[in-house]
Amino acid sequence: MGNTKLGSQSFCPDSPPVIVGYGCAAGGKEAEGPLGARFDHISQDDTFGESSWEKAESRMQDLALKAALGRAGLASDGLDLLLAGDLLNQCIGSSFAARTAAVPYLGLYGACSTMGESLALASLLLGAGYGRHAAAVTSSHFCSAERQYRTPLEYGCQRTPTAQWTATASGAVVLGREGHGPRVTCVTIGIVRDKGIQDANNMGAAMAPAAYDTLRAHFADTGRSPDYYDLIVTGDLGYLGHRIVTDFFARDGVRMDHYDDCGLILFDRERQDVHCGASGCGCSASVLTAHLLPGMEKGLWRRILFCPTGALLSPTSTMQGESIPGICHAVALEGGS
Amino acid sequence: MGNTKLGSQSFCPDSPPVIVGYGCAAGGKEAEGPLGARFDHISQDDTFGESSWEKAESRMQDLALKAALGRAGLASDGLDLLLAGDLLNQCIGSSFAARTAAVPYLGLYGACSTMGESLALASLLLGAGYGRHAAAVTSSHFCSAERQYRTPLEYGCQRTPTAQWTATASGAVVLGREGHGPRVTCVTIGIVRDKGIQDANNMGAAMAPAAYDTLRAHFADTGRSPDYYDLIVTGDLGYLGHRIVTDFFARDGVRMDHYDDCGLILFDRERQDVHCGASGCGCSASVLTAHLLPGMEKGLWRRILFCPTGALLSPTSTMQGESIPGICHAVALEGGS
Known about the structure:
2 copies of one chain form a homodimer. Chain A is built from 10 helices and 16 strands. Chain A is α/β, with parallel strands linked by helices.
């Protein structure tokens, strides 16, 4: 039927590409969480041997991508395209890592939705025939995010109950035109939603309406019900955002029986004192590459709707009194063999 | 023949999409330059009626996109995809403008190469059949860039001879699967290049190797010589970067007879005291939409290779002693009717 747009926001490639490799790197706190045993690389002191948190972030991307290429049995120069982004000003985590990768590079900015955006775009391009292999990569680092968005770590500021903990993690996915693994059959590209939330310490609530909208659009565009999927996972809405999305669907009379959130999976919320849960581009990226994809490989789930969410604010927009625009992209992962 | 990858870095859509509309907005200094008469919207005081430079930047994107939609005869909700990015931290210029556009949104970060990146991606997606209309938008603002990257305007710092002047401008292009206008027949996606330049006031020199590499790849991948094009235009390398690229090709024995740079077109370099020329995402975007596309419409050029360049640094990377990674994407614009 050819590559096509479905309904208002969904896009389906003619030849759904295959996830042929994935990899992840994470910090010490993440290693102590429920997924700790599954990361390809761990740095207990979060530096990855580098002299700054920002350089550590580039190094994490490099390690995650190399692990993904290794699983795919590909050399770095076997990639036709690299799509990446992160939270740092001017996305230096990604562009400095891209310097090492040395393949055609497309930089993205989708805040914490970047794993969804990069995976969606790579899938559409590859599925249409543009090259044979593409990689989607993202990262975040607790320390670089704190000093850029909030206060210097040394201040030891108290966190509000609605706050989330930025993951120190990177995830990379390598897609191929052919091979064995889950296929990306359809993606739903998000529309920016802003319901007026101004509290930068409550990003789950700010992003929840975008997640709800994208999920609704996905179901309407594809004619699928939530039941079609063995697992629907947003991320990183955290505890509060996850509850809001559940409530929105309940109000519509729609049951979301198999619905989870990456922000609730990465850490043990009670034991690890992360308040509403995990956040950061690296949250959904590491949950995808250390939990969801390995789980599909083991046959735990056959169909997953992976829906990373992003809060498109900056410290400047907050200081200027702006509310927080949110976005969510949904990526349908199916099958595998 | 289907959508395809050509050689090492080039990608060609099966059905080359058509540029059916374009629009631009610019500030007072830009209005006094050679292209002043051709902007759709001008704000003499660079505020566009907004209370901050950052909000002015979003407003410029909004105006440029509306002008482009107007020329295309489309309502805003007629867009299947919006691809945009800018220089502001977390790309708030684009995401807040996307809040107004309210269509499926993909945020990009390619520094000053963003007009090339957005146009390339929109063309590949649309040319493959994903939707009927897509828009590519970017912007920069002298005042928001100075305070973010350099020093507060009030300091009145002296500029080095190699410095460039960030354009206060936005450009928007609307692409259609069908219609009349130039077609995007092929794009060459850049590889990040870093030759060790560390001077953030000499970005032309930092980006020139990336421009040279992408142009060389484009010629090798497509089998075209520079003569194939009536005009090759990089941007924003400025005076020094343009000379470096010319020298590199001369060293290879390749004559670049019809080669210009967006950084040399937007301002009158001598009269307007902009040292090495213009820069910023808005530079190549406004030169494209106020000069190149109208010129193609008038029959001045039939084939243009449009090659925006980006310096992928941040103030943090510079402070940490890093050199400046550069990138350049080439977009082949052909024909028209």
